[in-house]
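Continued from yesterday's entry.
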Amino acid sequence: MCLFFERVRYRFFYADIAVSSEGEIVIAEKGMNRVRFFSSDGRRALRTVDLSEPPTGITLDDNYLYVTTFDKIGKLHIVALNSGAVEKTIVTGSGACAPLLDSVRARLYVCNQFQNTISEIDLNSRQVVRTVNVLREPKSMLLSKDGKYLFSTNYLPAQQANLDEVAACVSVIRINDFTKVKDIKLANGSNAVSYTHLTLPTKLEV
């Protein structure tokens, strides 16, 4: 399976990967403007969702695939899994990527990397309802275990590069009022921060 996905990577330039509730492997193929579903062992291509723009991130639930794309304008596409049809396209912001699903609140969050913002989308109304500014190029997100805070990595430091201490930060957003309440400074020299992982009870790994 590893060799198979190495071939996929170099041929199609994948941007993101996810696993469906049925165990299917879902890959956003940025170079081909499509999302493909594979069997759980990675050996069989099952179906394809074609897009008009390069996909930058994916997430899904039992009924829908959520795909961010970015060409000239960042967008979120809501795709019905049973038909493969795009039911709704929502404009978010420049560099839309890293969609994060909060199924409990029926919300979805999108990093707008080149706009330095995060958008909150109501999945019932299918509209952007709130937007918050972060530091510089948000690239990934996760929710706290209690759902009260959203943590976002900032890909690059938001300061000049000739200082003695230059570091990227993780922005902390309070969900209740969708306000940034803190920036956690990382180690000196940190940059290109792309992924986050939260371990129990409160430790954040970047």
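--- second protein ---
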Amino acid sequence: MRPSTLTLVALAAMLACSPPEPEGTSSSPIVGGKPDDSAGPTVAILRCTGTCVFSPYLNATEICSGTLIGPNLVLTARHCVAQEVGVEGGVLCSSSTFGEAYPADNFVVTPAKDVFEGGPWFFAREVDVTGAPGDLECGNDLAVLHLRSSYVGAPPAAVRVAAPAVKNEIYSAVGYGDDLAGGLGYRHRRDGLKIACVGTECKLLG
């Protein structure tokens, strides 16, 4: 997997959160932006080196972002929960593929604005991906984590299915990104972003 992968919240093609401006994601980290202290549906996903344990510190090796779409369902990128093949020099849409998904007990989720706050923690029960190992990354980068218990501290995002994403649509991105000052692991927000491509057009760019 890509080191220090910090994805954003949810696909612009699928989500419309409250407030009514679209909430968006990318497989790139949020760079810059402003701290986001809201109790919204964005959560941090930590992948551990094996089963997640606190002994006394969590054995986390990677951070991603996800979006609650139900009290115990987190939408995220498949590259956050599955092995990647052929990405050493970056993702190539023509050849980079997915391997097997990591076991569910390798993941723990927190809604805290800073992953170093100490929780609360919600452990994954199941990793759900579409397709199979060998799928090309581009066009297949979606996954859902099923949590063992529900988080009710924020309303889930509303999944947008009636209208697809449109090129040049404006969206906001929320995720656990890089503030360009050495700060990682706490929630950032960037507004006024624009969708650069949709569907097969993105493969041409990759």
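The helical segments are 200-205. The chain has a mean pLDDT of 82. Will compare against the first tomorrow.
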